[in-house]
Amino acid sequence: MALADISRVEIEKAIEECDRLGRDAFLKSYGFRRARRYLLAHEGRHYDSKAIVGAAHGFLPGERPLAPDAKGFSGGAEHAARLLGRLGFEVVEESGASAPPHDELISRITHLKVNGSASRRALYKPIALLWAMGRALRGEPRLLPWSETEEALKGLLERHGARGERLRPDYPVASLHRDGIWEVRDCPRPVPTAHGDARLKRWFATHQPLGGLAEPVYERFRHSAVTRLAVLDELLGTFFEDLDPDPLLADVGLDDVESAEPHTPQDRAPEQWLITAAEYERGCRLVEEQESETHGRRVSRTTRSPVRSRAARYLVLSRSGGRCENPGCTGQPADVTDREHPILEVDHVVDLALGGRDHPSQMVALCPNCHAVKTRGRTREALRETLLKVAMERHAAGGTDGAAPPGPPL
Hints:
- The chain has 410 residues and is mainly alpha-helical.
- The chain has three domains: 3-93; 102-220, no CATH class; 298-396, DNA Binding (I), subunit A (Orthogonal Bundle), CATH 1.10.30.
- 44% of the residues lie in helices and 10% in strands.
- The protein contains 16 helices and twelve strands.
- The protein has helices at 8-21, 23-30, 49-57, 80-86, 102-110, 124-137, 146-160, 170-178, 198-207, 215-223, 225-239, 246-252, 277-294, 310-319, 368-376, 380-396, and strands at 38-42, 45-48, 90-93, 116-117, 120-121, 144-145, 182-185, 210-213, 298-300, 304-306, 345-348, 363-366.
- The protein has a three-stranded antiparallel beta sheet with strand order 2-1-3. It has a three-stranded antiparallel beta sheet with strand order 6-8-7. It has a two-stranded antiparallel sheet with strand order 4-5.
- A hairpin with a 2-residue loop joins β4 (116-117) and β5.
- It is elongated.
- The protein starts with 7 loop residues before the first helix and ends in a 14-residue tail after the last helix.
- GO terms for molecular function: hydrolase activity.
- It is an enzyme of class 3 (hydrolase).
- Keywords: Hydrolase.
- This is 5-methylcytosine-specific restriction protein A.
């Protein structure tokens, strides 16, 4: 292998071949996958940096193309990307170049690595993520100039940094970027690690990058209430168990849980009310992963209350189609609140205090009257048996086939 011998001539030949074959055929012919991070930007087009360098090696006299697993050869900042930069090519770092699967993406967010002891995790990254989640929910621009990001996060860290956090927005941004969750653009690469101090701060102050959530993360937060609520549950349960997160949630625009529930009819047509089977299944996987860690756990505020999942509550409300899930309900299913939401309460058929699960398979959406009957009515035992059966059937149907049909526009 002679990476140092590759010149612009060989790189341009590889680019020409990629243009002729097309990206996918080019990658297949050399055995490469799409770039996960570094792309070669050339004449308005983007190319997979490692594949281009690997192919370019084959244009050297007497040499063969490099295989993806060639010893000492990578597409990272120290190999392919570095070589291209040395030859005068522009290399861009694109977090969304090859978006990971949904579950992997959410796992990155819900298993953040942070500084601090196990009992006092630093709040830099969760504060930054909650701020960005609120922006995505409101449809605000995904990317912002560094000056605006710095000002917003400094204010949040000053008001809500309860564990000695310094006013250093560069810490969480650099770390989230390394996690593949945050995109940083319009600046030299690579971004320094979050472990530095003066060097890291100076880098951001000098280069003033444009940045924000990686596009696939932003889109999940923007359009998937299940994902949004599952991440919110995880962040609050992991980082704020001994703190009151309400002031922070109000500050970032995530204090109103209903804002993340099924949209009002002005936002979506009646036939779109029911959650899709795929979204329901994906949401249940997130709930089950979290429930395996939180089942039976209590959270201490002024009282000790069971840990409850906002995502599970959303799934049940969506599954209900806006109607009480008691088959014998005689209430007023067409009536709604002033905000055009159905008058429904999510109930655990088997009480959490008695070992019930915080999971859609044991939860139902009930109108206030049916909820009261289930809680203290004479027929409550028989009704509970019926409701448990309904919950299990509708859950097994994937949140769609077993749900009540939507009524008139809510």
